[in-house]
């Protein structure tokens, strides 16, 4: 970029350090993110800040995404550029903020890790030695048997379980009631838990 454009970046860093009194760590992050913007501008023959427009900022964001940068990191870069451009507007260098209202591409949502069948079976095969372990075993058997979500399990009441019929009524997403199966092992665990529950109801 042109020397004048780089001079404005130096002034901005001074402003952040002396006027806004940002920490050295935060200043370093700003510098790194703005250096990335400058490097991109250099490769696209952009010499002055007024040559940046919304489309070019979007292209920069897309290039960062294609290179594997995560959504949060791209958003941080955009935020740094947005703040710098706001400073340039205050000093009449820019008329509008080219980074305004531009959002980073969304990162793919990470799916929760599921427990493998063998490990789950080992958990269910454990012999409970305390009343808390019996309670936990009953909860796991119910979840596994009926495919319950955690929120459904927490909201389950004793009266919602019909042991003879081998089913339970749960309140699912959207406040919709559904009937789920209660397998033989879950029925046994519940039958073992209910007498203990009556004793420890206040402690549970």
TrEMBL record:
Gene3D superfamilies for the chain: 1.10.150.130, Intergrase catalytic core
Under the heading InterPro entries, the entry gives: CB, DNA_brk_join_enz, Integrase-like_cat_sf, Integrase_catalytic, Integrase_recombinase_N, Integrase_SAM-like_N, Tyrosine_recombinase_XerCD
Q: Which UniProt keywords apply?
A: DNA integration, DNA recombination, DNA-binding
PROSITE patterns, alphabetized: CB, TYR_RECOMBINASE
Concerning Pfam families, the annotation shows: Phage_int_SAM_1, Phage_integrase
Q: Does the keyword DNA-binding apply?
A: yes
One GO term under biological process is: DNA integration
Indicate whether Protein biosynthesis appears among the record's keywords.
Answer: no
Describe the location of the Core-binding (CB) domain by residue ranges.
Answer: 3-89
Chain ranges of the Tyr recombinase domain: 110-204
One of the entry's Gene Ontology molecular-function terms is: DNA binding
Please give the PANTHER family that the UniProt record associates with this protein.
PHAGE INTEGRASE-RELATED (PTHR30349), TYROSINE RECOMBINASE XERC (PTHR30349:SF81)
The name on file for this protein is Site-specific tyrosine recombinase XerC
Q: Which species does the entry assign this protein to?
A: hydrothermal vent metagenome
